[in-house]
Amino acid sequence: MKRLFLAVVLLSVFCCSLMAQPPRVPESVRFADETIRFDRSDLYERMDRELMAFTYMHSTSMLMLKRSERIFRIVVPILRRYGVPEDLKYLMVIESNLDPQAVSPAGAAGLWQFMSAAGKEYGLEVNANVDERYHIEKATIAACRYLKRSYARFGDWLSVAASYNAGPGAIASRMETQQEKRAEDLWLVNETSRYMFRMLAAKMLFEDPAAFGFHVAEEDFYPAFQVKEVVEVSEPIPDLVVFAKEHGVSFAQLKRANLWLRESKLNNSSHRNYEIIIPKETGRP
Is residue 235, in this structure, part of any structural domain at all? Predict the structure, then answer.
């Protein structure tokens, strides 16, 4: 039975692979009010590779598309408020695949994949009890601060993206030694070199999934989190299981809505003000 199931799955993947064809590399892409052209063979081939990658990693691409409405409706207004182009949301896509619980082997966490030290530098609380790298709104504000500082240094958003991956010091150093002004013209390690073009391909995927062979009906997008109430607390909570029950939800529901709560209690010895979301569970729309 297991062999039959595996054969069916493999056949399905094979058939999908035959049907899906990556879109052709366009002459250019508009990204954050800048025109990125692919009129050199190296630029063309780098973009072509990422378009193929998004086309053939079926389950990951579908999951990202389904998660997008839930995540973007929170993130995009914050980007606008802080003066960061909306297209920078695609940086978050390639960082975490739009998984708010994503953790890298190196320990980067959350949608924006902040390392612990960087998260603290940009105003996030990061410890074993509270980790705001998993707080979508606060982590997005921290990302905006990083991105704007980087833009003030480099002056173009594709170089900002490269610096998000490799670090601003590394990109600035390579620009100086290689006598170039834009990151896409640099000789970089493979991960950073691909990173910029993966972000451009992500924009194309989300703007036109059908061009990649993906069809997501309106009802297939994961619904936004519904909020029953927001509870402000400034005292420790010794047992979040009891706290959840007192507010009519399970501990699991409370945790899903507040991923920044990392334990079953909130220490809060410094009596900071926190806002805890009490979710309202709903059926499919």
Answer: yes
Q: How would you write the pLDDT of the chain (285 residues) with one tens digit per residue?
A: 555 444 444 445 454 544 568 899 999 999 999 999 999 999 999 999 999 999 998 889 999 999 999 999 999 999 999 999 999 999 999 999 999 999 999 999 999 999 999 999 999 999 999 999 999 999 999 999 999 999 999 999 999 999 999 999 999 999 999 999 999 999 999 999 999 999 999 999 999 999 999 999 999 999 988 999 999 999 999 999 999 999 999 999 999 999 999 999 999 999 999 999 999 976 554
How far is the C-alpha of 179 from the C-alpha of 174, rounded, in Å? 8
Is residue 212 assigned to a domain?
no
237 lies in the same domain as 146: no
- In the block, residue with structure tokens 């991960």: 191
Query: Is residue 236 a part of any domain in this protein?
Result: yes
Nearest to 182 by CA among 190, 191, 193, 49: 193
Q: Are residues 137 and 201 in the same domain?
A: yes
Question: Which CATH number does the domain housing residue 112 bear?
Answer: 1.10.530.10
State the Rg of the chain over Cα.
Answer: 21
- 105-112 LR contacts (CB < 8 Å, sep 24+): 109/133, 109/134, 110/134, 110/135, 110/136, 110/139, 110/259, 111/71, 111/75, 111/136, 111/139, 111/140, 112/139, 112/140, 112/142, 112/143
Q: Do 132 and 48 belong together in one domain?
A: yes
**Is there a contact between 81 and 110 (Cβ–Cβ < 8 Å)?**
no
Q: Per the confidence metrics, is the pTM higher than 0.85? A: yes
**Residue 219 within a domain:** no
Q: Say how far apart CA 144 and CA 138 lie, in whole Å.
A: 10
